[in-house]
Design goal:
Elements: E1 2-7, H1 15-20, H2 27-38, E2 42-47, H3 54-64, E3 68-72, H4 78-90, E4 94-98, H5 100-104, H6 106-110, E5 115-117, H7 122-134, E6 144-148, E7 151-154, H8 179-189, E8 193-196, E9 199-207, E10 214-223, H9 226-239, E11 244-247, H10 251-254, H11 256-268, E12 275-276, H12 315-323
Parallel strand pairs: 1-2, 1-3, 3-4, 4-5, 8-11, 11-12
Antiparallel strand pairs: 5-6, 6-7, 9-10
Length: 341
C-alpha cells in the first residue's frame, strides 16, 4: 500500500519558531515510516515545516494518491491536523492519528472516521496496515481507539515494545530533505545538528469499565543500549555531515555515570561529532574528554569554542536576547533574572 506520513507544522505560522529558528522534524514519524517501509509498503513523508500552506499537502496527496495517511498532532497543530485528516478521508483514504493531542481530545479526531493510535506506534501501525490491506476488522487490534455507535471505543492496551531496540528499524531519515533545516541552523546558530533518541517513553492507558473514558496515564521510560546509540551515530556520521548530535532525552535523569559511559563508548568508536541535550545540565566534574573535550556537550554548557563559564552578561541583555529568540549557546539565564523562563 501507499502510505503518506504528514507533519502539519508550518514554520511560517509559528511566531515562536520564527524567533527561535530551532525546528526539528519529529523522530517519531521517522521511526514509524521506517517500520512501514520495512513491512513492504511504499512510504512518503509530507513535511509542512518549510511549505507554504495546506495547498502543498493537497498537492502531494493528489500526486501520491495514498491508501493511508498517518498524521501526528500537538495541541498547537490541532486545526491543521484535523484539516489534513478531513481532506484525506474525503478523498477515500484511511486516516490514522497519533501524538499528544490525540490523547487530549480523542473524539475530535475519531468522529471523522479516523483511527487513533494509543501508546507506542510501530506494532500498532503495522497491524492496522495489515488489516487495511487484507480488508479485515480492526476490533481485535490492541492499542487503538475509534468511533463506533456514537461513542469512542478503546481496544485493549498495547504491550510495550521489548527492551531490545534492535527489533525496531532505524528512523527513515533518507525520506526527508534535511537541507533546509541545516541551512536555517547554520545561518542562525552557526552549526548543524541531527536528533537521535537514547530513551523510549511508553504511555499506558487505563479505562473505566465502559471502555470509553480514559482515567489514567502511566508513563514508563526505557533506556536504549549505549552500543545501539553509538552505532546509529556512526551511520549518521557516514551519511550526513553535521556538527552535532542532539539527544532528545532527559539527560539529567539518565545521570552522570550514563553520560560518561556514552562518551567513553563514542571515543572507542572513533566518533568525532559531539552531542548536546535539549536543555542545560549542571553535573560537577563531567569529563571533557580532551582532545575531543566537546563529546560530552550539553546545550548551554561545554560546547565547541565556548569556555565552561561563558562571559557574564547583564540581566537586561540576556532577557532581551531571550525574548528575541537569539540566546547564544553557553549563555545562561541568571536565577536572579525576573520573568525569565
Amino acid at each position: 500500500m501507499k502510505i503518506l506520513f504528514a507533519y502539519p507544522f508550518f514554520l511560517k505560522d509559528s511566531v515562536l519558531e520564527q524567533n527561535w529558528k530551532t525546528p526539528y522534524f519529529p523522530l517519531g514519524i521517522l521511526y514509524l515510516a521506517g517500520a512501514a517501509r520495512q513491512a513492504g509498503h511504499s512510504v512518503s513523508i509530507f513535511d509542512g515545516t518549510f511549505a507554504d500552506g495546506f495547498e502543498d499537502f493537497v498537492s502531494m496527496f493528489n500526486t501520491i494518491q495514498p491508501d493511508v495517511v498517518c498524521i501526528t498532532s500537538l495541541i498547537t497543530l490541532r486545526e491543521r491536523a484535523l484539516a489534513f485528516g478531513r481532506y484525506a478521508i474525503a478523498q477515500g483514504a484511511k486516516v490514522i492519528y497519533g501524538g499528544p493531542d490525540v490523547q487530549v481530545v480523542p473524539s475530535n479526531y475519531a468522529q471523522m472516521g479516523a483511527i487513533l493510535v494509543v501508546g507506542e506506534g510501530e506494532p500498532t501501525l503495522i497491524d492496522l496496515l495489515n488489516a487495511f490491506q487484507n480488508n479485515t476488522t480492526i476490533e481485535s487490534i490492541h492499542g487503538i481507539a475509534y468511533w463506533t455507535d456514537n461513542v469512542l471505543k478503546y481496544t485493549a492496551p498495547r504491550q510495550q515494545i521489548p527492551l531490545d531496540w534492535s527489533q525496531l528499524p532505524l528512523p527513515a531519515r533518507n525520506l526527508l530533505n534535511f537541507e533546509p533545516y541545516f541551512q536555517l541552523w547554520q545561518t542562525h546558530h552557526g552549526y548543524t545538528s541531527m536528533t537521535l533518541a537514547a530513551t523510549r517513553a511508553y504511555t499506558s492507558v487505563s479505562d473505566k469499565v465502559d471502555d470509553v473514558i480514559r482515567t489514567q496515564f502511566d508513563t514508563y521510560v526505557r533506556v536504549r543500549p549505549i552500543q545501539d546509540i553509538v552505532a546509529e551515530m556512526k551511520l549518521i556520521e557516514k551519511d550526513y555531515s553535521v556538527d552535532r548530535f542532539r539527544l532528545v532525552d532527559d539527560l539529567g535523569a539518565l545521570g552522570k555515570d550514563w553520560l560518561v559511559a556514552l562518551g567513553e563508548a563514542m571515543l572507542m568508536a572513533d566518533i568525532k561529532t559531539p552531542y548536546e541535550g535539549l536543555k542545560p545540565l549542571h553535573f560537577d566534574d563531567l569529563p571533557m574528554y580532551a582532545p575531543q573535550k566537546d563529546l560530552c556537550a550539553e546545550r548551554t554548557i561545554w560546547l565547541p569554542g565556548i569556555d565552561h563559564d561563558p562571559k557574564a552578561m547583564d540581566i537586561e541583555t540576556i532577557q532581551r536576547r531571550w525574548e528575541q529568540g537569539i540566546l547564544q549557546e553557553g549563555e545562561t539565564l541568571p536565577s536572579s533574572c525576573k520573568n525569565c523562563s
